[in-house]
């Protein structure tokens, strides 16, 4: 009888091991990003023209193939109003973030530093945040205060602004995401991960240098 029970114990142990492995893998996947938007591809594809994703994770589009960014407007975290179409003529850096998102917290000091330095240098660059999935403004405001974010962020708790981007364009389909718009208001570069100061400048500088 002891021999007949042994296989049952083995199957039970094996089942627990498989379940543990599945849970571990699920946890690993969850840690790769705070959240996804429309589930679009993160690899090369079409954006009104071909875009190229480099080894750094930055996707770029040649000037002739860029898609115009949608109008992003509404109330900001500090209770003011903002319309990104009024920023044409400048390079616009759009960062999608949430106070609950660890990678967003990791990259926030880099955005604060680069934005302040470019403003001090008189560069024609505007930074705009899109705060999403924070259903209490105070959480977003505390985040900005903690990390020294001085540029405005549109308050978008339900992610409606992100849905304005055309699906066949470089769109912010993860949190965090960063887009760089050229001076004509077209999407020139994107990354779907937290950025270092060096990586952020690598996204901005080539677009800023365009004639």
What does this structure look like?
The protein is 34% helix and 21% strand. The chain contains 4 helices and 11 strands, in the order H-E-E-E-E-E-E-H-E-H-E-E-E-E-H. The protein has helices at residues 2-30, 102-120, 137-147, 197-208; strands spanning 35-36, 51-53, 59-61, 73-75, 81-83, 91-97, 125-132, 153-156, 174-175, 177-181, 187-191. A 7-stranded mixed beta sheet has the order 2-3-11-10-6-7-8, with helices on one face. Strands 1-9 form a two-stranded antiparallel sheet. A hairpin with a 5-residue loop joins strand 4 (73-75) and strand 5 (81-83). The longest helix is centred in the first third of the chain and has 29 residues, at 2-30. Residues 1-32 and 37-49 have low confidence and may be disordered.
Largest sheet composition = 7 strands, mixed
Radius of gyration: 21 Å
Q: Could you give the count of β-strands? A: 11
Strand order of the largest sheet: 2-3-11-10-6-7-8
Q: Shape, please?
A: globular
Helix content: 25-40%
N-to-C order of helices and strands = HEEEEEEHEHEEEEH
Percentage beta strand: 15-25%
For the record, give the distance between the C-alpha atoms at the N and C termini, rounded to a whole number. 84 Å
Instruction: Give the overall average pLDDT.
Output: 83
**Helix segment count?**
4
Structure classification: alpha+beta
Instruction: Detail the poorly predicted runs.
Output: 1-32, 37-49
């Amino acid at each position: 009888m002891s021999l007949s029970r042994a296989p049952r114990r083995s199957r039970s142990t094996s089942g627990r091991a498989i379940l543990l492995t599945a849970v571990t893998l699920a946890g690993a996947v969850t840690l790769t990003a705070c959240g996804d938007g429309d589930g679009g591809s993160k690899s090369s594809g079409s954006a009104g023209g071909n875009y190229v994703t480099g080894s750094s994770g930055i996707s770029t589009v040649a000037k002739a193939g860029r898609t115009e960014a949608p109008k992003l407007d509404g109330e900001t975290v500090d209770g003011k109003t903002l319309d990104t179409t009024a920023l044409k003529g400048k390079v616009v850096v759009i960062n999608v973030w949430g106070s609950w998102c660890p990678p967003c917290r990791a990259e926030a000091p880099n955005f604060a530093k680069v934005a302040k330095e470019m403003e001090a240098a008189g560069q024609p660059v505007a930074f705009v945040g899109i705060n999403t999935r924070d259903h209490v403004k105070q959480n977003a405001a505390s985040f900005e205060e903690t990390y020294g974010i001085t540029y405005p962020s549109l308050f978008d708790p339900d992610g409606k602004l992100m849905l304005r981007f055309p699906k066949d364009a470089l769109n912010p389909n993860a949190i965090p995401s960063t887009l760089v718009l050229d001076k004509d208001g077209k999407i020139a570069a994107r990354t779907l991960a937290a950025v270092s100061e060096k990586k952020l400048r690598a996204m901005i500088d080539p677009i800023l240098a365009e004639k």
